[in-house]
Design goal:
The protein is of the alpha/beta class. The chain has 2 domains: 64 residues; 193 residues, Rossmann fold (3-Layer(aba) Sandwich), CATH 3.40.50. The protein contains 11 helices and 9 strands. It has a 7-stranded mixed β-sheet, with helices on both faces. The chain has a two-stranded antiparallel sheet with strand order 1-2. The longest helix is centred in the N-terminal third of the chain and has 15 residues. It is elongated and about 65 Å long. The N and C termini lie far apart (64 Å). The model has no long low-confidence stretch (mean pLDDT 94). Keywords: Methyltransferase, S-adenosyl-L-methionine, Transferase. It catalyses: L-glutaminyl-[peptide chain release factor] + S-adenosyl-L-methionine = N(5)-methyl-L-glutaminyl-[peptide chain release factor] + S-adenosyl-L-homocysteine + H(+).
Length: 279
């Protein structure tokens, strides 16, 4: 990037590098990494553009850009991702919360609940977002990854939400019943993994991406065991991958859930499958 460029020139050069490397969203990524390097909120970048970069800021920016050129996700580089109404800490032990997952949060908030279980909680983004909107409710998040659970606990504390987090393989360590069960489980089939962007395939936790099979293993376990952990009238809501909605809906119906439906995301793709336990 040269010696002591001003901020605008450093950003321009970095974006050019990202574009040349074929990084999707290079301009937005460059700005996020630049704000991180300067330790500034994005809305203050304009004020900083005409100033020379300090040696420390230049080093931080070059390191961040190099990481992105290696296809490390921006959220991992800067350590956080905006989701729903909060920023969540992100590490290599957790999935990067996606905007489309907000469809699940929005749908879950359409009806009241006093207890919620989040299976495969990861960063805790879904559970914490729900509890922040319903502070009178109690919530539990599960994961098989201890490092992910620690990230979720830290996010809950940072955002000011009270929740329980337990190590569990789906329902194996879960006790009690809940008004709402949510999950964004690993749904990528093994034969689809090679086609993923390297940002995802090489950097995010594999066990949170794929079941190493047909992509439906988690849904079979969740649909089978959810009724025993739902209150009468309780809801099960799961995020699904492309083309899986009808199959997951069939699993819910086979498990005895009613009012099963498929909800689209903002792009019109099937995203959330919903079912209700009979009263």
């Amino acid at each position: 990037m040269g010696d002591s460029p001003n901020a605008a020139e450093a950003l321009r050069r970095a974006v050019a590098q990202l574009v040349a490397a074929g990084i999707p969203g290079a301009v937005e990524d460059g700005r996020l990494l630049f704000a991180h390097a300067l330790n500034l909120p994005r809305h203050r970048l304009t004020d900083a553009m005409a100033r020379p970069l300090s040696a420390l800021a230049q080093e931080r920016f070059e390191t961040a850009v190099a990481a992105r050129l290696a296809r490390q996700p921006v959220a991992q580089i800067i350590g956080r991702r905006a989701f729903w109404k909060h920023d969540f800490r992100v590490t290599r032990d957790t999935l990067d919360p996606r905007p489309e997952t907000e469809t699940l949060v929005e749908a879950a908030l359409q009806a009241p609940f006093t207890s919620v279980l989040d299976l495969g909680t990861g960063t805790g983004a879904i559970l914490i977002s729900l509890l922040a909107e319903r502070p009178e409710s109690r919530g539990t998040g599960t994961d098989i990854s201890r490092p992910a659970l620690q990230v979720a606990r830290e996010n809950a504390e940072m955002i000011g939400v009270s929740a329980s987090f337990i190590e569990s393989d789906w329902f194996s360590a879960v006790q009690g019943r809940f008004d709402l069960i949510v999950s964004n489980p690993p749904y990528i089939a093994l034969d689809e993994m090679a086609g993923l962007a390297p940002d995802v395939r090489e950097w995010e936790p594999r066990q949170a991406l794929t079941d190493e099979a047909d992509g439906l293993t988690a849904y079979r376990a969740i649909a089978r065991d959810a009724p025993a952990h739902l209150t009468p009238g309780g809801r099960l809501m799961v995020e699904t991958g492309s083309g899986q909605g009808a199959q997951v809906a069939a699993l819910m119906r086979a498990a005895g859930l009613q009012d099963v439906c498929i909800l689209p995301d903002l792009d019109g793709r099937d995203r959330v499958v919903f079912g209700r336990k009979p009263r």
